[in-house]
From TrEMBL:
It catalyses: ATP + H2O + 4 H(+)(in) = ADP + phosphate + 5 H(+)(out). This is V-type ATP synthase alpha chain. GO terms for biological process: proton motive force-driven plasma membrane ATP synthesis. Residues 114-195 form the ATPsynthase alpha/beta subunit barrel-sandwich domain. Belongs to the ATPase alpha/beta chains family. HAMAP family: ATP_synth_A_arch. It comes from Candidatus Improbicoccus pseudotrichonymphae. SUPFAM superfamilies: C-terminal domain of alpha and beta subunits of F1 ATP synthase, N-terminal domain of alpha and beta subunits of F1 ATP synthase, P-loop containing nucleoside triphosphate hydrolases. Pfam families: ATP-synt_ab, ATP-synt_ab_N, ATP-synt_ab_Xtn, ATP-synt_VA_C. Residues 442-538 form the ATP synthase A/B type C-terminal domain. GO terms for molecular function: ATP binding; proton-transporting ATP synthase activity, rotational mechanism; proton-transporting ATPase activity, rotational mechanism. Residues 213-434 form the ATPase F1/V1/A1 complex alpha/beta subunit nucleotide-binding domain. Produces ATP from ADP in the presence of a proton gradient across the membrane. The V-type alpha chain is a catalytic subunit.
Amino acid sequence: MAKKNDLIYGINGPIIKVKNTDSFFMYEMVHVGDGLVGEVIKINKEFTTIQIYEDATGLTTRDKVVGMKKPMGVLLGPGLIGNIFDGIERSLGAIKDIHGDFIPGGCRIDISNNENLWNVKILVKVGDEVSYGMIFATCAETSVVEHRFLIPLGVEGKVISIAERKEFKLTDTVIEVKNKDKVVGLNLLQFWPIRQSRPVKKRHSPNKPLITGQRVIDTLFPMAKGGCAMLPGGFGAGKTVTQHQLAKWCNVDVVIYVGCGERGNEMTQILEEFGELIDPKTGKSMLERTIFIANTSNMPVSAREASIYTGVTLAEYYRDMGYDVVMLADSTSRWAEALREISGRLEEIPAEEGYPAYLSSRLAEFYERAGNFTSFSDRESSITLIGAVSPQGSDFSEPVTQNSKRFTRCFWALDKSLAYIRHYPTINWRLSYSEYVKELEPWFELNIGEEFVENRKKIVYILEEEAKLLEITKLVGQDIMADDQKLVLETAKLIRIGFLQQNIFNDFDKFVSLEKQRLMMSVILYLYKKSKELITNLVPMSKIIQLDIFQEISKMKYNMPADCLEKFKSYIELIDQKLDSIV
Ligand code: ADP
Ligand code: MG
């Protein structure tokens, strides 16, 4: 019989109270009723308050609450990659196979239910001294990711035994370590509390770009590996499509895609697409390096909060193995709304627009887990965090956008008015910024050439000039513009259409190497320079426009396979030939 004070005392949606205040601790995992997973979020003199991460419908005051004596956490081990989980790391694929489309309350099917045998290579010998973070074994988790098993935190000492076998289930003991009098057996599974970041040896400042193959990002607003970026945009502005593009193309080892509070069919779509897509880097399916976490709009709101922490904890786990990891969260606004809802039920005093006062510190705790690191396995690795933000009515002054801005250094502002004119990606070049430009310049100079950095500045300058001129033309019209001003407008248009716009459905254009980006810029700027010379020699701009050369260059992105970059020379020749014909 349960003691009376271990029964639910009060229920308010996903928030429950129990009178027992002695035997729980903060952030402890609890099981409620049929085993629904919850977390202790508040303890005071009278009550322990618990947030339930599953559908709480049907709970009554006769239901029991049991503390699990461990913090809310996730299981880590092989089998994560290629899988799809809910916010509390239940394996949705496996649940569907057994229970169909509905997740029964208290259902606990996670990676530990995986009966696979893993072919493990043990890297230590009996007698070796081991400590936290050392890699004691590896296995091929997928054909592209080697899973590296680290000595867990708190385990230190001599290896005293090694299993003779080659193949292991997740729960089979692989090695035993003796520390003083205590013997610890290590298997292929570990546990980690989701709210606590995993320790690292050292943090470094970001100095390498995250290459995305998207020109407006790589060239104009570059992102650093180990950095934080936000992607604000109103409904339909293109956040999800852009995040999918980043997940597909960015140059990392492991991608973690968290669908938080958005439509479920989008999650289905990305799963299907990724199943078919071939990763250009490895020639294998994208699923071989991707983990999905789905807490879509039809799933319990409270689990949205957990999904973000679960995602970033998995990111840290692979980071510790020495991998570059990117985590994409779509969308952090839905996560913040979950915080708001829970805070309301807790009757906390609301701050701006009803969000709790700790919104900002929660966002900080999340984004702080990004970075460039030396892990305890002595490997260089990184976590890049990219959060979509969905401000109501595209109003960027709302609290989630404003607070996220404080902790992210790349701001890719998605603009609905660009979506109206089908200018994709809709990243607005006037509103966006990247604070990584300066830090990444040395890398670009060394690896792509000084010209890349120089050309970028020129492109930015022309777009800025265009904006100023457009202001003026609004007042006085284009007719009285000087020819060099008309040339700026024409070139800026070419940059917008021929360079910033990118077609995700075109094979040559969906991913563009930095080398091709450099060459495209140089062709555009060559046309600009050469036209400017003509104008200085009093050739009228109207004559240059008649040549249709600007239009032709704007299509070069579609005529340039990645393996045939010499074609750029023919564009330079074409410019020479056409412009020289005027003279
Ligand atoms: P959000 O997530 O901001 O609500 P989506 O990313 O779902 O918006 O985009 C809405 C629609 O806009 C998509 O369904 C697609 O038709 C179109 N779209 C967005 N980005 C692109 C793109 N890069 N290329 C072509 N179409 C796009
Ligand atoms: Mg979306």
